[in-house]
Write a structure and sequence with these properties.
alpha/beta; Rossmann fold; 4-stranded parallel sheet
């Protein structure tokens, strides 16, 4: 979406009618008996990071709900109303389309909100926003979230530090587990519909081949090339994700006598999901 008028209009609607769109609930309290800090996250995996570091001190509101496409989702008036009074916004910061369209408007409606760019310090792949899909990049994101929480709530910095250290330890274990599960597949090619797994492929020495080309369905000529590529590399599984159409992947799978397997990059239970995904990739590469 390039039209900047619609985001402004929706922000105005949220300002006038947001109170009627949000169910009134009693404020929750954190570890010191104070009201929880409201944190906004763009996507569910980031919300998981914030909840692990912030613990009982934070209430996390996710902008892009389960099953929604980050490239096209538009926030509701109630989400924008919540963001207008949040203490901190945790953004992916690596070119996520939702943030490219909406974050300036959200930030201007709440100038006191700290915006934390979790991509700071990540070795970015140009044009690929999916930094959370490697535990090694996720560790950097978690560090950035920790620093943001300390900035908005220095009184509880030790609490956040303990939580952060424990979660990074869990991510290090996850990284080791993935490395072990993919050992022996160094340099192997795998095919996906949407190119979400570039950071994962880079960090575990795999090569990702994407069906979707620059956000568009492949042409007939592209499809022929993809089928030939899959056959040349003995690829039998095309990995898809729930947020996108699977039609092109199904056509290629039929042509190569293979199958389509879903892997989701956006569930909230980050560690469990990455374990499932790595095992699924290992089975597909075997």
């Amino acid at each position: 979406m390039n039209n900047k008028v619609l985001p402004v209009l929706i922000l105005l609607i949220a300002a006038f009618f947001g109170n009627a769109c949000i169910e009134k609930t009693e404020p929750q309290t954190g570890i010191n008996g104070k009201e929880q800090i409201v944190i906004i996250a763009s996507i569910l995996p980031q919300a998981d990071f914030v909840e692990h570091v912030g613990g009982d001190n934070v209430e996390v509101i996710v902008m892009i709900p389960p099953g929604a496409n980050p490239a096209t989702y538009e926030p509701t008036a109630s989400q924008l109303k919540a963001a207008s009074s949040a203490a901190m916004y945790v953004k992916v910061g690596s070119g996520l389309p939702f943030e490219e369209v909406w974050l300036d408007n959200i930030g201007s409606a709440n100038p006191n909100m700290l915006i934390v760019d979790t991509s700071e310090g990540v070795d970015l792949i140009p044009g690929d926003p999916h930094i959370w899909l490697s535990p090694r990049s996720a560790m950097v994101q978690v560090e950035n979230i920790y620093k943001g929480l300390v900035a908005v709530d220095p009184e509880n910095s030790e609490y956040y530090y303990r939580n952060k250290e424990q979660y990074i330890n869990d991510l290090e274990v996850l990284d080791t587990n993935i490395t072990e599960s993919l050992s022996g597949f160094d340099g192997r090619n795998f095919m996906v519909f949407h190119p979400s797994w570039g950071y994962f492929a880079r960090d575990y020495d795999l090569t990702m081949i994407a069906v979707e080309i620059e956000g568009k369905e492949p042409s007939a000529g592209d499809m022929v090339h993809l089928v030939e590529t899959a056959k040349e590399n003995n690829i039998k599984i095309i990995f898809v994700q729930p947020q996108f159409s699977t039609k092109s992947a199904e056509v290629i799978a039929k042509e190569i006598g293979g199958s389509v397997v879903a892997v989701d990059p956006l569930p909230q239970d980050y560690i469990t999901n990455l374990r499932i995904v790595s095992n699924t990739f290992a089975q597909g590469l075997a």
